[in-house]
Amino acid sequence: MSDDKTISEMAAVEAKEEIASEAVSADAARIDSHHAAEAPEGAASHIAPDYTILFGRRINANIYVVVFGILAVVTLVEIGIAEIFLEGIIRTVLLVGLSLAKAVLVMLFYMHLREDSKIFAAAIILPIVVGLVSVMFLLAVPSTGY
After folding, report:
1. Cβ-Cβ contacts under 8 Å for 61 (sequence gap 6 or more)
2. Positions of E strands within 68-120
3. Average pLDDT, the chain
4. How many CB atoms lie within 10 A of CB 109?
């Protein structure tokens, strides 16, 4: 009699498992058809947002594309200046100025110094200023010495 009870219990458990698996597969089919209706054919099932969250701040991703375009144009201008101008101080000053402008854009946007604390900006700007002052002192000394 205990064997009959065990067999009937096993049959009941199997029936419950079959019903549960049918319900799960029906839910999965419903979820898949729901997501398939949202995404166009050939597209990913999720859409990436056009912004990113950095340290709790929302940053528009389009600004990165604009800055990249500006950097590309400035680089092309630098190449043009290097090819057009002959050796001279004007060419050097223009190229250094454009390089500094590109460095500032990279620091402000890609290194996120625009949103960070001003102490980080000072940590980058201070060594640059000290280096420029050092170069000015070195240039002030005549090559023949005093």
Report:
1. 49, 50, 51, 52
2. none
3. 78
4. 19
* Residue 95 to residue 79: CA distance in whole angstroms: 9
Examine the pLDDT at 131 and tell me if it is beyond 60: yes
Read off the pLDDT of residues 48-62 as tens digits, 9 standing for 90 and up: 677 777 677 777 778
The 3-class SS string of 52-71 reads EEECCEEEECHHHHHHHHHH
Question: Within 13 Å and on the Cβ side, how many CA atoms surround 19?
Answer: 6
How far, in Å, CA of 115 to CA of 54, rounded? 9
Residues 85-124 pLDDT 10s: 778 888 998 999 999 999 999 988 888 788 788 888 888 8
> What is the phi/psi pair of residue 85, to 5°?
-75, 140
Angle between helices 89-105 and 62-84 (to 10 degrees): 170
CA distance 143 to 81: 29
- The Cβ-side half-sphere exposure at 56, using a 13 Å CA radius, reads 1
The two tokens of residue 131 are 């280096």
